[in-house]
Amino acid sequence: MNINFYLAFDMRDFANSGTYWNEQIAGGILAQSAADEYRVYSQDGNRNFFFGNNLGQVDNNMPVDGTIIAWNNYQSNGAGVFSMFSFSVSAYLFASYVLSDNIADLLEGLIMTGDDSVYGSGFNDYLLGYDGNDVLRGQAGDDILDGGAGDDQMLGGSGDDTFIVGSDGDIALELTETGGFDTILIRYTPESVTYTVAELVESARNQSGAPLIIFGNTLDNSLYGGSTADYLYGDDGNDYLNGGAGADAVHGGHGNDVFFVDNVGDQVDDLTRTGSAGSGIDEVRSTISYSLLAQPNLADIENLQLAGTASVDAIGNRLNNELTGNSGDNLLNGSAGADIMRGGAGDDIYYIDNGGDRVIETGAGDGIDTVRSSLSHELGDHVENLQLTGGGYINGVGNSLANRISGNGQSNILAGGSGDDILTGNGGTDLLYGNDGADLLDGGTGDDFLDGGAGRDQFTGGAGADSFVFNSGDAGATAGTSDRIVDFSRSEGDQIRLNAIDANATNGAASNDAFAFIGTGAFTGAAGQLRYQVVSGNTYISGDVDGDGTADFVIRVDGAHAFVVGDFVL
Predict the structure, then answer these.
(1) Residue 313 in 3-state DSSP?
(2) CATH number of domain containing 484
(3) Please, which residues have CB within 8 angstroms of residue 381's CB and are 6 or more apart in sequence?
(4) 238: in domain
(5) Are the C-beta atoms of residues 513 and 536 closer than 8 Å to each other?
(6) By the 8 A CB rule, do 209 and 227 touch?
(7) 96, 188, 265, 464: which could form a disulfide with 447 (CB 3.0–4.6 Å)?
(8) Cβ atoms < 10 Å from Cβ of 264
């Protein structure tokens, strides 16, 4: 038997919805032009022509006597929708299947039981061969071709077609280079456990439930493993290789390949099927923490992107890597090479160890991010924190955000930006500059210089002989707006440095006049006087630079202190 379908509608509707076809037919008889021809109109205006032998009695608008050998459907304008012919089915059985909404069983049990030829339409067809060695031709549209049992030939057309293969004898081919993006679904285990994707077909998926070796072709392939441990070979082209569940081995070959990793046992490389080195810019996309240093074969993989939403980490190799985080809290470490690191959403941590390393955060709402750098570093946009690492004498600079910047064990220069920053020197002789904003400066151990800049700042010198530095305009003029020194200690050699402030702003001189320290005495109306007083257990230092007898700046020092002139650099 040879059955041809010439379809101008979605064959998937036909295969899955008997109700649709019952509505199409249950309209009424237009004419009976001859004893063996019935014309039945459709509710949507289409015409159904039934041809047969000895067709006679009609029941529910369907012939029930005789034998039907052909069924044609036409649009009201005469254009053909589909034709089925060269079969022989009792009219009574045919009608019973149609009127009971059982079109699929009609096809499978009565019509399409032999070696069939099925031709698709210009629409999205579902072509099913059932039993026999069938030939399915998709034509135009995004078609699904399933030969069913037997050794079938499935030929795609101009759309994005899907081939379902179920035996070694099945052949799935795309006939033209402009045939769309086509996919083979492998639903059996080949005798050789190996499947090679035909030329001009782009994608294949293992749906057999067993381990397979899948070889791509020269196109840009998308190969997917199944629920077990698969081997995928991309060969030429820019391929996407996803082993699926199980510990898979994926080999990119030549081209710019993408490997998807979701199992710690997955093995990735850019080797060809012969074992030679591939070429191109390759990328691993991983839902788990992943290191391009973990396997020798990863040495030639350039890029690593974290997928999913879990808080996982990405580590590069000796190449110039691009590392990309996901929406979780990621750690990105490019290792050697000049690396580009993009964290995205989440509280991300970046490691800088090369002068060419770049950190890119694109959004203000992308979390609280931290750079850990063994080199001098200035924070880029949308990155909040900086931690200096290693043993070098290096420096750190913030940005306009509220930064947290910390030094290493050596002498560092740390500078905030316009935000409310926290600067921590740790070991060494550190220089801390708060700049604008209400900053917190902590020198840590060592003899540190702390300069808060503008804004209401707080200073903690830590161990060592620390210098608290003030410039004109740094401190407010009242106790409520004053800068604050938390741990002044004369015994450790701390000093308050006011020598950058011109003590006399009234004489018009270009020189920087020094303050006259008057202890706890009151201002007398002379410009340049400096005094202190203890109020409620804390000490307040004030200076008068214009001689009006009132303080022009005030500095709070925690605790009750009896200051002497040697506590200051005037």
Answers:
(1) strand
(2) 2.150.10.10
(3) 361, 399
(4) no
(5) no
(6) yes
(7) 464
(8) 10
Tokens of 272: 């060809």
pLDDT at 211: 96
Out of 90, 111, 132, a domain closes at 111
314: phi > 0 → left, psi -120 to 50 → alpha, else beta; which?
A: beta
Looking at the domain assignment, is residue 309 inside a domain? no
393 in Cβ contact with 375 (< 8 Å): no
- Of 86, 90, 35, 92, nearest in space to 60 by CA: 92
Q: CA angle, 236 as apex, 232 and 238 as ends, to 5°?
A: 85
Q: Which amino acid is at 43?
A: Q
Residues 6+ apart with CB under 8 A from 455: 420, 434, 436, 437, 438, 439
Name the residue type at position 457: D
Give per-residue burial for 207-234: e unless 16+ CB within 10 Å, then b.
Answer: bbeebbbbbbbebbbbbbbbebbbbbbb
Total number of domains constituting the chain: 2
Q: Please, are residues 532 and 541 in contact by the beta-carbon 8 Å criterion?
A: yes
Task: For residue 410, give the 3-state DSSP assignment.
Answer: coil
Domain membership of residue 339 (yes or no) is: no
Spatial distance between the Cα atoms of 250 and 241, rounded to a whole number of angstroms? 7
Averaged pLDDT in 10-residue chunks for the chain of 570 residues: 34 33 36 50 59 74 76 63 64 75 62 67 75 84 88 92 95 88 96 95 97 96 97 95 96 96 95 86 98 93 97 98 97 97 96 97 88 98 97 97 97 97 97 97 98 97 98 93 97 98 86 94 97 98 97 98 98
For 266-291, give one letter per residue: b (16+ CB within 10 A) or e.
bbbbbbbeeeeebbbebbbbbbebbb
Q: Which two tokens stand for residue 67?
A: 């034998």
CA distance 101 to 34: 27
C-alpha distances out from residue 374 to 239, 337, 355, 396, Å: 37, 14, 10, 10
Integer Cα distance of 87 and 70 in angstroms: 7
* Domain boundaries, position 99: 11-111
List C-alpha distances in Å: 230 to 217, 254, 284: 17, 20, 17
Residue 17 belongs to a domain: yes
Question: DSSP assignment of 238-283, as one string?
Answer: S-EEE--SS--EEE--SSS-EEEE-STT-EEE-B-TTS-B--S--E
Residue 125, C-beta contacts closer than 8 angstroms, at least 6 positions apart? 5, 7, 10, 11, 12, 138, 139, 141, 143, 144
Distance CA 13, CA 99 (A): 17
Distance of CA 198 to the CA centre of its chain: 31
Domain boundary among 111, 136, 161: 111
* Closest by Cα among 182, 189, 235 to 212: 189
Residue position matching structure tokens 């209401």: 456
Q: Whole-angstrom Cα distance, residue 185 to residue 198?
A: 13
